[in-house]
Amino acid sequence: MQVTVYDDDVMKAWRILKRKLTNENVLQEIKDRRYYQKPSAKKREKRKEAVKNEYRRQIKQAQTTGIPYKDYDPFKQTFKSKKKKR
Predict the structure, then answer these.
(1) Number of folded domains in the chain?
(2) Is the pLDDT reported for residue 24 higher than 60?
(3) Residue 15, domain member (yes or no)
């Protein structure tokens, strides 16, 4: 990977390099390979990340519809019942 420095602006070149590394996931790959991780632990982390992403997606969906997240039911697209269960 190569970045050219124009007009002695090293900081701009540094930002461009960081952006390129981030876009190609090089930094994440280095962090992942720093230590050995068992395949089961990788699966667990991946599942955990998927749950977190789904939670964020649901919160964003609730905000766009104007419904508070606690009352949001993504399957019904309406408010949950406020009645007390006996």
Answers:
(1) 2
(2) yes
(3) yes
65/73 Cα distance (integer angstroms): 11
What percent helix, strand, coil does the chain show, rounded to 5? 60, 5, 35
- 82, part of any domain: no
Q: Which residues pair with 79 in a beta bridge?
A: 72
Per-residue model confidence as pLDDT tens digits over 32-71: 899 999 999 999 999 999 989 988 888 888 888 877 766 6
Contact yes or no for 62/79 (Cβ under 8 A): no
In a domain? residue 53:
yes
- The whole domain housing 41 covers 37-77
